[in-house]
Amino acid sequence: MRERTARIAGSVALAALFVLPLAVLALQAVADSWSAPGVLPDNLGTRGFDVALRSGRAGEALANSIVIALATTVVALVIAWPAARAIGMRFQPPPTVFVVALALPLLMPSYLAGFGLTEWFIRLGIDGTLVGVVLSHVTFALPYAVLILISGFGRELNSLEEMAAASGVGPLERLRWVTLPSLRPTLAIAALLAFLVSWSQYGTSLAIGGGLPTLPVAMLPFVRTDPQVAAAMAILFLAPCVVALAVVARSARSPL
Amino acid sequence: MSGGLAVTGLVVSPGGSQAPVLRGIDLEVSEGEIVAVVGPSGAGKTTLLRALAGLEKPEAGEIALGGVSQLRLPAHRRRIAMVFQEPRLLPHLSVEDNVGLPLRVGGVAKEARRQAARARLGEVGLGGFAERRVAGLSGGEQQRVSLARALCADPDLLLLDEPLAALDPNRRESLRVLLASVLTARRLTTLLVTHDRTEAAEMGDSIALMLEGSIVQHDEPSAMFERPASGVAARFFGISNLLRIPGGPPGQVWAIQPEHVAVGAGELTATVVESTYRGSRVRLVLDWQGQRVEAMVDPAEAPAAGALVGFTLPAERLWPLPGDASTGSRTPAEDAGQR
Question: How far is A25 from chain B (nearest CA, A)?
Fold first, then answer.
């Protein structure tokens, strides 16, 4: 009995650790006035969301961030796939030199990368565009995608693909019936990380995007000047991540 | 059903390795024939099957099935199915969907695919298993599913790569019986790779012995056991006696199986060096004029080590090894040194 109580108490404490900061954020977002030393706001209202959506361009920023994150995820996975396959089918686990080389771009501060790319993108005429921002985000999403996808390829998948080929199953059906189901959990996690890397990019978005608002770029000015608007934006910022996480949790649940 | 398989001068270096694993394989398999390919580990048996299935690219040679060259065909376009040493089932599909996998490509309707899969499952003794997940099946059942899948492809050539190797003795025996009955009933042109010479003799219409990437002898099972082409072939088939007979042609080596050496009487005499009890038989090692002779005798008549015994080498059981086979002969002293 005591053990059960302890377990429940532990679970509640753990849940509180995740839920409390969110609850404070949600309260802050709807606190039209909250004077010290009050534990709860004096007035609740939607001013935070109203300002965010009107003067903060949160709606546009949200739409941009979703489009950019989804496009970054797709481009990163398409480029990562052949690279991960080539490495993973041959070396398992991959040699350290590959891992280090692939991770090198992650060591660079994102604003520096964005600064370097801006010069080049201006010449290409894609600075300040969605395409430009997506390409700059891919720089950071790609290493994660390749490193994670490598673990999905290997001898076991190779043996199943060989079996399918020897059973008369052609390349497209092999992809449909063997490769994709086998890689599903790995693919889902790689996609989630690519999405989140893009979603939280600030430096490159600011350097490349110019006037193009994304959520982190739109939110930052409000953090000091108007915490209620910043909190409202943070809630908007969080919602797509929760959806992405739920989709991935579902995809990763039925591995081979 | 089309004609048989003809392999000529096949050279394969798997994965671009420098030394070829297959060094000029020549092999003929008639339509409906079951050829058992035997040989020690590393001889190239699996590489041969993989090359036939299109999973390894040959550097030279020809593979023709029913008179049609297979070399330019990718694996999935060859009318060749393969059962691997491990079942290689897709865990996210049911048993029935695993078996019906080869029919997903031919535009076969779902119902027809289901019926075909269930028929093949019945054929391998898994009639009620269609809806099951593969995860709950035993090793033997999984290998039956993989056999049913290969049959579902309706191949012109079936390749079996040690399909019984990973099973325990009981399951191995029951799957061997099933495999033999399915192959006999279908008269499928089949290449069965095994390292077990007894299994090869039981299941193959003929046996091909592979050594170091070449087929050194391909003949009917009795010939492989009684008329080996070389000392190494003789040893692989359990003929441990490779003897020079005093008064016979100089340099000629004769092969005779231990079971055929008659101990107890006869004009020849030898000293018993070793006498090992093996259940129903006793294995004797004799020293005959410096040559090592193995014999199998009834436990009740087995002499003890050190005894002087008479024996005969029946002329009709002696097989003269072709060419210079002297390397296969061992003396009792050499034998002791090896151990």
Answer: 42
A23 and A78 part of one domain: no
Flag whether A50 is in a domain. Answer: no
Rounded to whole angstroms, the Cα distance separating B244 from A186 reads: 66
Can you tell me the distance from the alpha carbon of A65 to that of A134, in angstroms, rounded to the nearest whole number? 10
pLDDT for the residue B313: 92
Using a CB-CB cut-off of 8 Å, the residues of chain B touching A171 are: 76
A91 touches chain B (CB under 8 A): no
pLDDT digits (tens, 9 = 90+) for B212-228: 999 999 999 999 988 88
How high is the pLDDT of residue B218?
94
Specify the pairing of strand B34-38 against strand B190-193: parallel
Q: Give the chain A residue whose CA is nearest to the CA of B105.
A: A169
Residue in chain B lying closest to A171 (CA): B76
* A170 and B76 Cβ atoms separated by less than 8 Å: yes
Range of the domain at A28: 1-45
The answer to whether the peptide bond before residue A37 is cis (omega within 30 degrees of 0) is yes
Condensed to tens digits (0 to 9), the pLDDT of residues B118-141 reads 999 998 888 889 889 998 898 889
Please indicate, yes or no, if residue A221 is contained in any of the structural domains.
yes
Average pLDDT for residues A176-202, to the nearest whole number?
A: 90
Shared-domain flag, residues A208 and A233: yes
In a domain, A52, yes or no: no
At residue B153, φ and ψ (nearest 5 deg) are -75, -10
Residue A53 placed within a domain: no
The CATH number of the domain where A173 resides is what?
1.10.3720.10
Check CB contact under 8 Å for B91 and A163: no
Dump pLDDT digits (tens) for A226-239.
888 888 888 888 88
Alpha carbon of B152: minimum distance to chain A alpha carbons (Å): 9
A4/A125 same-domain check: no
Whether the CB of A134 is below 8 Å from some CB of chain B: the reply is no
Residue with tokens 């004096």: A42
